[in-house]
Design goal:
globular, 4 strands, 103 residues, alpha+beta
Length: 103
């Protein structure tokens, strides 16, 4: 059965068979919030990178919407997206140097 959280992704990318997504973890942390993670997939191998952010599902749905009204959520969204762009750029560098994305 597919989790409803699987459909709540902020952004995706694909660079030379490396796929990335920003998603929220299904499990609750000790504060009762869901951790936000970057997921990278290469040849069916997945790596997860913590963003350091955690939200309730209501806040995560607000962040993934097109118009974020809350200033804190807006700043967090920009920070999460910037981190994702840095990861995408690093993967692009690695692929251009003919190295494997995952060690």
């Amino acid at each position: 059965m597919k989790s409803p959280l699987a459909d709540i992704q902020l952004k995706k990318f694909s660079v030379c068979n490396v796929y990335g997504a920003i998603l929220v973890d299904e499990r609750l942390n000790k504060d009762g919030l869901h951790n936000v993670r970057y997921r990278l997939t290469y040849r069916r191998e997945r790596k997860y990178i913590a963003t350091g952010y955690a939200y309730s599902l209501d806040d995560w749905e607000r962040i993934t919407s097109n118009k974020v009204r809350d200033e804190k959520l807006k700043k967090d969204k920009i920070s999460i997206l910037n981190g994702f762009e840095v990861i995408a750029d690093k993967i692009n560098e690695v692929v251009n140097e003919d190295r494997k994305p995952f060690k």
